Amino acid sequence: MFEIRNVTKRFDGAAAVSNMSAEIQDNQVYGLIGTNGAGKSTLLRMMAGVLKADAGDVFYDGDPVYENPEVKSRICFLSDSWYTPVGASPEDMAKTYETFYPGFDAKRFFSMLDKVGLDRKRRIRTFSKGMKKQVSVLLGVCTNTEVLLCDETFDGLDPVMRQGVKSIFAGEMADRKFTPVIASHNMRELEDFCDEVGMLHKGGILFSRNLSDMKLGLQKVQCVITDPAKRDAMLARLNVVRREDRGAMMTLVVRGQADEVKAVVNGADPVFAELLPLSLEEIFINETEVAGYDIRNLFS
Amino acid sequence: MTSGISFHKLVRENMWERKWLPFLTAVSGIFFIIIGYYFVLGDIIRSSTGDVSQMYEWIAYRAESYIGTRSAFLVTLALIAAILAGYSGYLWLHAQEQVDFYNSTAVKRSRLFSAIFTSGALQVIVPFVICDLAAVFLMPAARGVFTWHLVGIGVRGMAFAILVFLCLYSFVVLAVVLSARIITTVLMTALLWLYGPIMYALLEALRMAFFDTLVSGTSDSLPLWLSPAFLAFGAAGDTISHAGACLGILIYGAAAFAASMAAYCVRPSEAAGNAFAFRLETTIVKCMILVPSSLGIGMLLGGIAMPTAPVVYTTSSGGGVTYSSNTQISVPWMAFGLLFGAFLMHTVLELLFQPDFRNIRRHWKSGAVGAAISFAVYLFMVLDPMRINLWIPDKTDVQAMSMTTDIANPWLIEDSYYYYDYDADDTGEFFREYGALYDLAQDCVDSRAEGVSQAETDYNGRSIVIGYLLTNGHKAYRTYTVSGAKVNSVTEKLSESEEYRKEYYVTAKLPADFTDASLKFWDPAASEASESLAMNAKERKALIDALAQDSTAQTLSALESQTPVYVLSISGSEENYYRYYDIYIYPSYQNVLKQLAQLGGFSDINDLVTEIPTSLELTVSSNYDTGEYKYVTVSDKGAVQMVLAQLERETRIQVMKSNGTDISGQLMYADGSSQYMNFTVKSQENLTALLDEAGVVTTE
Known about the structure:
The complex is a heterodimer of chains A (300) and B (700).
Chain A: E1 2-11, E2 14-24, E3 30-33, H1 40-48, E4 55-60, E5 63-64, H2 69-72, E6 75-78, H3 90-100, H4 106-116, H5 129-142, E7 147-151, H6 159-175, E8 179-184, E9 196-201, E10 204-210, H7 211-216, E11 218-224, H8 228-237, E12 239-246, E13 249-255, H9 258-266, E14 272-276, H10 280-290, H11 295-299
Parallel strand pairs in A: 3-8, 3-9, 6-7, 7-8
Antiparallel strand pairs in A: 1-2, 1-4, 4-5, 9-10, 11-13, 11-14, 12-13
Helix pairs in contact in A: 4-5
Chain B: H1 7-17, H2 20-46, H3 52-67, H4 72-90, H5 96-104, H6 109-143, H7 148-178, H8 182-210, H9 222-225, H10 228-236, H11 242-266, H12 279-304, H13 331-353, H14 358-362, H15 364-383, E1 398-405, E2 413-418, H16 435-450, E3 461-470, E4 475-483, H17 484-494, H18 498-504, E5 516-521, H19 537-552, H20 556-560, E6 566-573, E7 578-585, H21 590-597, E8 615-623, E9 628-634, H22 637-645, E10 647-649, H23 652-657, E11 663-668, E12 674-681, H24 684-694, E13 696-699
Helix pairs in contact in B: 1-6, 2-3, 2-6, 3-7, 4-6, 4-7, 4-10, 6-7, 6-11, 7-8, 7-11, 8-12, 10-11, 12-13, 12-15, 13-15, 16-17, 19-21
């Protein structure tokens, strides 16, 4: 488990991360969401032991990470600008990773590489952005570390590859202790992927919550109710977070359990009523409004 | 999972990443060391005269300077290799993506640092050793001149080159670790290698300009010790002790290695792309460069702006004594130049650190700090608040004094030559009857305090170093430029003390192990040379002892009132230098005269062979004030005798004191020899008439 305790990091006097505290449990996919400059990369670098916190510290399983080879051997960090030596091929990178990650499984790496159709001898500098990301993710997974920190790694991956990576992660988590931490500014990238999400803003963490828990208390319902009185009575009984009308069609985001909300809506004799899955954005809108932010302003 | 990343794996990985380095080293070694040495040997063999032993001597000599410990060439190769190995091994610190990768791995920083350092060292040293051994063993064999002596030269040279490489490599690594962009890395490398000698040169220039009475007390080789690169070249150039230099290089290298590892271990990962790795470094480095640069620019402008005609005025102390100042700087212009230089350097450095013009304004504070330090140094120099330049101890604090001048012992010797290494302690022996000397020192300080003049009125300015042995045991020295007349007067007064005479008369301390001696008559009408005086060791010692005894028995004034009888020349060679003395033998040197009479195989000193000069070439001053001269040749033997009868040969002190007409002459003899003399004129009228009649004016 990662423990981030009152961590602060400044660059040229400006706080990139300010007094942040959070916990990241093992064996779950953790998403770090935030705009550019929110502090995601900085936090990941501190978790990887690259940066030293100016205040506070980062612990993994109770031990500080910085300059701790024992702990760092259990973490692999994939930076947003991933390093490859000049002229290196995936084969060369495998050798490098074998040196720095003793648990690296080269055989598995080459097997996965073949499956995605990448040439192991071709120079990585000639790969497209997406292909480079693919290689980096595969290398990271094959290091067999307990933690994989991915900084904007999914940016540039096609949907098929993204799905493939999700499957790989799921498989890893099923087989062993594996905790991917993924930073992104694109919520859609992490849709249906993360178990827990932390939202960063201006160096601080707005919230860190389990997605399922967030979803449990929030429902999205689409309905058509022709009787105005029944409609108003229904709206009065529901704890409406958001309402959107398109003609007769009403789309509501309401707090409450699914069964309760369904019962109230059905009680209004709707012509049409359906519970819809919530997007990550809608969940966040709710959460940020509670925190007093307008998420549209955060991401504009 | 444990962090079991082995050291040798890290080294191997790093070697793989820069496999071009050993290849480049090997290719350079083959061409420059193996093939180069082959041609060097061939060159010597071809130009050999046939003397085999001499040929081997030459080979050994040349081998020392090509692949031995005196090889500036090997030092240059080591320097280039250090830069290549250091930059290629650690420049990744300047790229964020590489820092992210390496610093996220499960390797302690110190271990990674050591692995990269070792990798670079091996990739240079191993191919170099192979090439060097091949050169050392195979090339002489190929040329048919193999000797184990040559092998020894080569192996020692190889060890020296490796030592130099490791030292300079450590400094390059330190420069890379402390900086975060390539341009500041180059700046840092230059700073670490050159800052010491540059600062020394600047401080010496400031000292000479503002504290010119201070005796630097440092040797000419000190700048070499202030830089690892200079030290390496100095050791190869044989200008300093090789063993000492190697020790210095070792210490420098160890210190640089320790500092670079320590800096690397605490280096912030976020420094990549900045100017320097550590926050305070920018201000420190800027001040380190800005302060000496602005002072240098200030001195340059102050020197250029200095009026060409010197300002002359006499001091209130009177007595016809004037003092010269060595300050050649216009102080107001220096102040302007300093501030201008500070602004200029601030701008240049900011643009070097980050090419953003806004930083010139943003970082004004660090520029201001540098300018303030420069100005404080400038004010310290100009105002001299501690009265360094006007310092003189209280007489009650002085137990003894010393004095050395730029012209030594003109009462006692005609000429002398000896080569020696400057020794800061070579400032004369201390003596206790120093009253006249203290008065001179006080006079110098008082005049300096009143103001300075630029010109010498008697054209006889002398440089003196006055030493103080204080009652607390400390020694202090000051140097002044003083009129020659004053120095002569004080010296004559001091010679009234027997202690002074025994310490300062050169004739009291002549070496008895001279190898050659000859005697010449003082009379210009006589021959310039007798036969050489053959002496055994006992006779040499007796002569030297007699000289010491006779000379130290008399004051300088007493000697000056006499006309020398002879000039005794003694000379000898030692390991590193050659020396000779031409010593006046005065009539009062009874013991010496007795010794001389017993030498040379003649019973009477008057048996010395004499010969009248066959011709004279005189340089006659026609107008002393304007410095006009004419050259007159007298070639009739009879006329030569008559002219010489009108002239009186002068000793050196008499020449220095004379303000009359100067005549100097080259006397030629039948055997083709000649000698040079200075004269004073007995009768100007008679001489003029003689020269008009017999002399031929060749040039005016």
